[in-house]
Inverse folding.
């Protein structure tokens, strides 16, 4: 089969599309024929070696964590899915395997989905939607009536965060580029700020919760608009929380943790028509490097998919 691999830590340009043996299916594994895989910022960090202390890779390493597809075979101990089932999954970051024609994934990370839904529309759920859910409901414990600011509301995580926050009864404001203002409004944001021409820090005050996927200056300036006792959840990179604590703000960096139960809850919302998955660009598996390079530039609309 074909797979996108790296043979050492390095740069996006080091990705190769290799011919490799099909994965070996263990007793508790599910072999999935991949229909679509989603690219995430973490993929670029893994390639560069920024996360090697947390997720050391064994080389050669097949990239990718988020996938959707059809079950081809299962290990003898698997009882949750069967061949022919349509599923979504998130592999462990150090294991990878999603950017390939076939992937073997532990059954505990695999969630069956409705046959009525287009599979590629679900590929962006495992990390992006589940991270948004984790940030809002587990880290920030958002409540009805609270004010929530979502930075990069048209992005992978942001587009889901806007929808979850609005569905929870919060008053949602989001930042986005001018080209995406209408999209973010359609997802449920009551106010959308063009981050290129408007200053969110001058427009907002006493916000209850900020969900930040941008980091850097955007995160630091967000501290000035959060009320004392409010919450800031950053998903871009670890940051110093001491300045936030001095202001009486509960700030934390959230690193997404795979959870099949959370993913199943998110998938159910899509099945019921309560959650929209925004698909931005689609690339062939052969163009994995191009896809990750585009993602690294920022400003992506929705999820970037790879189609084996």
């Amino acid at each position: 089969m074909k797979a996108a691999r790296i043979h050492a830590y390095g740069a996006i340009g080091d990705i190769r599309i290799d011919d490799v043996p099909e994965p070996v299916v263990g007793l508790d594994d599910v072999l999935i024929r991949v229909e679509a895989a989603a690219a995430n910022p973490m993929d670029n960090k893994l390639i560069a070696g920024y996360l090697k202390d947390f997720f050391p890779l064994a080389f050669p390493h097949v990239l990718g964590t988020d996938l959707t597809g059809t079950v081809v075979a299962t290990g003898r101990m698997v009882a949750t899915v069967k061949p022919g089932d349509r599923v979504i999954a998130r592999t462990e970051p150090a294991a990878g395997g999603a950017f390939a024609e076939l992937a073997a994934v532990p059954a505990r990370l695999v969630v069956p989905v409705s046959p009525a839904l287009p599979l590629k529309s679900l590929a962006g759920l495992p990390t992006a939607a589940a991270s948004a859910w984790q940030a809002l409901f587990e880290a920030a414990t958002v409540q009805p009536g609270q004010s929530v600011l979502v930075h990069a509301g048209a992005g992978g995580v942001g587009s889901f965060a806007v929808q979850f926050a609005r569905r929870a009864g919060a008053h949602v404001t989001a930042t986005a580029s001018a080209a995406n203002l209408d999209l973010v409004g359609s997802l449920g944001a009551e106010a959308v700020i063009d981050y290129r021409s408007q200053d969110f820090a001058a427009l907002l005050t006493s916000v209850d919760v900020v969900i930040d996927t941008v980091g850097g200056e955007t995160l630091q300036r967000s501290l000035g608009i959060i009320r004392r006792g409010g919450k800031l959840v950053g998903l871009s990179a670890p940051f110093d929380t001491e300045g936030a604590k001095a202001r009486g703000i509960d700030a934390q960096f959230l690193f997404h943790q795979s959870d099949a139960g959370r993913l199943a809850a998110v998938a159910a919302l899509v099945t019921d028509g309560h959650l929209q998955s925004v698909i931005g660009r689609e690339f062939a598996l052969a163009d994995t490097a191009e896809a990750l390079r585009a993602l690294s530039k920022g400003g992506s609309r929705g999820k970037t998919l790879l189609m084996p």
Summary: The longest strand covers residues 29-39. The first helix runs from residue 41 to 48.
